[in-house]
Amino acid sequence: MIDLQKVAHFLIIVTISVYGLVVAQPILVPLVFAIFLALMLKPLNEIIGKFIPWQIAQVFLTIIIAVIPPSLLIFAFGWQILNILGDLPSITAEIKSGVNTIYTWINSRIHFPQSSGIGWLRDNFSSLLKAPLNFFSESVSSSANLLINAGLVIVYTFLLLLYRKAFRKFLLLQFEHGAEFKAKKLFREIYNVSRGYLYGMLTVTLILGVLNSLGLWLIGVDYPIFWGLFAAILAIVPYIGTFLGGLFPTLYSLAVTTTLWQPLAVIGLFTFIQILEGNFITPKVVGKSVNVNPLAAILALVTGGVLWGAAGLVIAVPVIAIVKIIMDRIAIFKPLSILLSSDLPEKKSKLSNELDKPQYSLWEYFKKDT
Asked: What is the reported pTM?
């Protein structure tokens, strides 16, 4: 028999947790970013510590070294970002014009009936395409919030690095006596997965941004750095992101140029870069550090985007990877951990054989105690 009280407790906990994540977003987002940034900067801080004996000076120099590169990039390309924000309405109009051009070309050859839904699809497709651009505009234009959050992230990161040994000791004390070794192993795995993915995706994004921008500049597309970096950032979304990243500059070039070769060249460029990224860049740089299948990654990205917007999109994949690591160590959640794995086809026999026992069933938790 199912214990309805347990079900109710579970639903209440989930509801309160989701509500808390949404309400506490201004507090949690800078803190979570700071935690991941501190994990990324820990190796650099340890290297600096070999030469500087004072801990505060070590952490301060680590933060300075980490802040300089993005500051230089913002200073170098800030003028283009401001120009793009001013021209965003015209860019959106040009993209819609590109959609209409494709619709007109297809309709002239297939002759859709008036009652068909193709016209509706065209109009709504244009609206869907405007959403990411408007999202980008709102995120960048709210410069005050952006600066405040960036400042909080830097302060939190400084303090997390400064007190990291105390925080680590505190977390270890929360485990039962004798479980310290397993706890240390868990923390090490979480650290390796988070750092490996974040370093890897940062490297992949920079490589794709350079390749995209250089290719679009050679083709002659306006705003090559914007489109290139925009497509590189969208590439964090498996499959869909790369497609959208190439679709926007293709539609834009289709609308603003009178020749056909430029849109075709953009399609060829992104097809080549997608093949290069999928078969060489990402496997070599990121590898299997996350071990999460595309379905789980997309669901995590959608959930993160709904709850925390752009910040949720950035941290969704490493968070779901950490959740998977924790699930793998709790018997009742082991089947869910396998469902999240990138090697799910190879492990499906494990679900029906090794884990086909009552202690691995979620329903066992909701049964009445006898």
From this structure: 0.77
